[in-house]
Amino acid sequence: MSRRIGMVLMVVLVAVSATVYGQSAERMDAILASDPLSFGDAAYLAVISAGLMDPDGEASDALAIIATRIAEREHRDRYNNRDADSPVTLGEFSYLMMITHDISGGFWYRQVPGPRYAYREFAHRRLVQGQSFPLQQISGERAMRITGRVLAMREARS
Amino acid sequence: MIGRANPRTWSGVWRTAAMAVLVLMVSVSAGALDAGGRLRVQGDWEQDEDPQGRMTLNAWARLYPQLQGDATAELLIEGVAIFQFDDFAAADLEYFTARVAVPGLLGDNSVFRARGGRYQLRDRIGLIVDHRVDGIGFGVDYPTASIRIAGGYTGLLLKQNASIVMSAGDITDQFDEFTTTAPPRWIGQLEVDFPELFARQTVVLGGIVQHDRRSTNEDTVDTQYGYLGLSGRLAGGLYYQTGGVFGGVQRKDDALGIDSSGSMVAASHRFVLFMESLASSVFTLRGLYASGSDGDFEPYTPITSVSTIPLAPVPVSDLLLGSAEYTFRPFHRSESDIARNIGLTAYGAAIFTADPTADDAYRGTEAGGRIALRPFSDIGGSIKVGAFIPDEGDVTVRGRVEFSTSF
C-alpha cells in the first residue's frame, strides 16, 4: 500500500471512527478487510455512521432499522428477502447511505427511489470516484472511503 | 453514415459490432453494465425570424470488461436521435468508444491509455477542434507529463450530427440532399501536457494536422496548427487560461484555378475570479483574436466552431473580441435546493475585425443575461436573452430556452 493511500485511509478511518466511537476495533478491522463487502456489513456501516444505532448492535439490527426507514418513506421493500451475507453492490450501498443519512436525491430518484438513482446521485456529488457502476461489488475499504466523504459533506453543510 | 463508406469499412464495422455484442453479453452476465439516457430541448428565437426548436435524445450503455491486475477497460455505446422541428429528424451513433488504462506498463508511476472507435477529439486550449471522430488514440500519463497521440476521420458521421464547416464545399454539402455524411477529413493530433510544471502552472504543447479528403476538383482546405497553452491559479480565487495557435492553411479548387497557402494565428486569454463568499460570484474577462486576410496572414480557420458570444453567430475568423461576464447565485444560502441553485448572469461583448485600427473595424456589441435553474441534480434549464447592437443597422434581439435531464 502506498504512503498516499495509507494516509487517505487513515483520514477516512479517523472521520468514521469519530462517529462510530464506541464500537469494537475488531469489527471495523473485519469490515475494512472484507472484499467484497457483505450486504449486512454495509447496512451496519451505513446505520452506525449515521448514528442511528449503538455500535455494539448487530447487522440484523441495522437491517431492521433500514427496513423501517424504507417503509417510512414508502419506498419499494426491495430488501425483504435479501441475504445479508451476499455481496453488496455500489448502487445498494449508495441507497443505504442515502436512506440512513437523509441525503436528498435527484428528480428521477424521487420518482423511482432505489440503488440505480442513488448511485447517480453519489456520482454527481463525487461521493463515488474512479471507475464505477451501480452493480459493481465493493470492498470494505472503498465503502469506508465513501462513508468518509459522506461525513465530510454533512460536516461542510452543517 | 452510409454515403462514403466502402465495403472494407463495413467489414470493419461488422467485426467491431460483433465484438461489441460479445463484450455486451459477457458484461451483462457479469453485471458490469450501466445504461441511461439524456434529453435536451432547445428553442431559439430571433427578432423578425421564425423560432427554431431542436430536441436531442441520447441513449447510452457503458460496459466494464474485467481485466487482470489494476488495468481497467470500458466500452461506451451511445446513440442519438435529433429532431429539428419543421426541418429534419436523424439518428446516429454518437459514441462507440473502447478505452483501456494500464498502470505501470511503461514504467513505475505511468498509466498507459488507449482508446478507439468513435470518440471525442479536442485540443486543450479550445481554439481548434472539439468533435467526434472515428479513429484511435494512445497516451501515457506520468506525474510530471502526459503525452497523447490521436487521429481519426470525420466522414462517417451524419452531417446533421456534425459541426465542421471549413470551406464553401462544406456549406454546399449541408444543403445538398444527396450528401448524407459530414465533411470527409482526417485529423491527427499530438499533445504534451505538463501539469503544474512550475508554481502550479500547467503548460500544454501540441500540434494538429487536418487533411481534406475531397478530390482537388472540389473546394478543399488543408490546415495545420501548432499551439501552446498556459493555465493555473494566480492568487486566491483568480485563475487564468491562455492559449495561442500558429498554423498554416492551403486552399485548392482545380475547377476555379484556386491554389493558395498562407499562415494564420489565433490567441485567447481568459481571467476567471471565483468569490464564493459573495453569493458564489464568478467574474470572467476574455479576449480573443483570430487573424483575418491582411497580407501577412490568412483568415484563421478552425476545424470546428469556437465559442465566442452566447447568442449572435460570430465565427472565429478576422476577429478581435473582448467580453465580460458576471454570474452569481442570489439565494446561495437558501435551505431550498431549487432556490439555492438559481444562477443569474449578465454579460457584454464588443466585436471588432482583426485589425482594430482599420476603418469600420468595430462590428458591434452583444449584451444580455441568463437565468439558469438546476432544481435537481438531474434536471436543468436556462433562459438567455441578448441584444446585438451593430455599428450600423438595427438592433437584433435573440433568445434561447434550454432544458435537459439525464435519466
Key terms:
heterodimer, A: 158 residues, mainly alpha, 8 helices, 61% helix, B: 407 residues, mainly beta, 18-stranded antiparallel β-barrel, 57% strand, disordered N terminus
In words, what does this structure look like?
The complex is a heterodimer of chains A (158) and B (407). Chain A is mostly helical and 158 residues long. Chain A has one domain (3-157). Helices cover 61% and strands 0% of the residues of chain A. Chain A has eight helices and no strands. By secondary structure, chain B is mainly beta. Chain B has an 18-stranded antiparallel β-barrel. Chain B is globular, with a radius of gyration of 23 Å. The two termini of chain B are 27 Å apart. Classes of the chains: A mainly alpha (158), B mainly beta (407). The A-B interface holds A 89, 104-110, 117, 120-121, 124-125, 131, 133-136 and B 31-34, 36, 62, 64, 72, 74, 337, 375-379, 405-407.
Order of helices and strands of chain B: HEEEEEEEHEEEEEEEHEEEE
Gyration radius of chain A, to the nearest Å? 14 Å
Query: What is the oligomeric state here?
Result: heterodimer
Query: What percent strand of chain A?
Result: under 5%
Alpha-beta classification of chain A? mainly alpha
Query: Tally the helices of chain A: what do you get?
Result: 8
Helix/strand-derived class of chain B? Answer: mainly beta
- Write down the overall mean pLDDT of chain B: 90
Number of domains of chain A: 1
Query: What's the helix-strand series of chain A?
Result: HHHHHHHH
Mean pLDDT of chain A, nearest integer? 86
What is the percent of helical residues of chain B? under 10%
Q: Let me know the largest β-sheet of chain B.
A: 18 strands, antiparallel, barrel
